[in-house]
Write a structure and sequence with these properties.
Two copies of one chain form a homodimer. Helix content of chain A is 31%, strand content 35%. Chain A is α+β, with helices and mostly antiparallel strands and 164 residues long. In chain A, strand 6 (138-149) and strand 7 form a beta hairpin. The two termini of chain A are 23 Å apart. The relative contact order of chain A is 0.15. Chains A, B: Pfam families: Acetyltransf_1. Chains A, B: InterPro entries: Acyl_CoA_acyltransferase, GNAT_dom, Mito_N-acetyltransferase.
């Protein structure tokens, strides 16, 4: 997907993003977030707690996704960052996740981070696992049954890592 | 060490605990916490964010350590808990960490958690790694150079896990 724009997410963007966020966490296939999280708690989690959050739009101005970037730990662990990505259902399969991950790595490097870590990639989310691997991430650990998948039951999660 | 008491940590306990907390994070050998964290931020992190925090005292009433217990993730990840333990310098080598970890597993089970996960056990903290292994935890992942050790430089961290 070409001509994507990345801008800091504002309140209007989050309102456009909320149906996507709400559907993804309600589904309980990929994110370890309360499925009935409130709008305000979601805004805090996605936009206020992280160091940066981007709204991603296509060339027509349509919102296609969003991601956040934050430190994964503090002090002596503060050189490793963490990101989360969500794509709108209409924009799936068009390379938005790849574009977001590449953008996030550039932003993370610019902010001085030396590595990126995903703490809990649900093992059954094979599309995501394969994409992160193609983008240079390695599975450095697997936590048994750490995720209660809404249709598959207890499934493993992967810790994935890449030096930037 | 026998006759330890475990009570919910109150403000007075935290004041007794603060020199231990401050020294451990300033040392930068084991915890990924800002080394110059403020008293208030430390109180929030250790006592307010977790589900429960315990002050541990010996039979003379002396504070020997503290631990917190919290969920390691939310929603479909909320069945896995996380704990952090600190022992006062005077009480090291007396089994306090073991006693705290055993107590925390009992508390975690009572709260309905099904597993306990440590996200970043510094690999050079061999005493801790060996103790958690003796207590039934497994290394399920290793993140390369995720911790900047104050005297050893970049060192790995382990993800450790145990079903309860």
């Amino acid at each position: 997907m070409s001509a994507l724009s990345f801008t800091p997410m504002d309140h209007d963007d989050f309102e456009l993003f909320w149906p996507t966020f709400k559907a993804i966490v309600a589904e309980q296939y990929t994110y370890a977030i309360e499925p009935d999280i409130s709008y305000q708690a979601a805004y805090t989690l996605w936009c206020e707690t992280p160091k940066a959050t981007f709204a991603v739009k296509d060339s027509t101005g349509e919102l296609v996704g969003s991601y956040y970037l934050k430190a994964n730990a503090s002090g002596p662990g503060g050189h490793v960052c963490n990101c989360g990505y969500m794509v709108t259902s209409a924009a799936r399969g068009k390379g938005v996740a790849r574009a977001m991950c590449e953008h996030s790595q550039t932003m993370a490097q610019a902010a001085g981070f030396q590595a990126m870590q995903f703490n809990a990639v649900v093992s059954t989310n094979e599309v995501a696992v394969a994409l992160w691997q193609r983008l240079g991430f390695s599975i450095v650990g697997t936590v048994p049954k750490a995720y209660r998948h809404a249709s598959l039951g207890w499934v493993d999660t992967h810790v994935m890592h890449k030096f930037l």
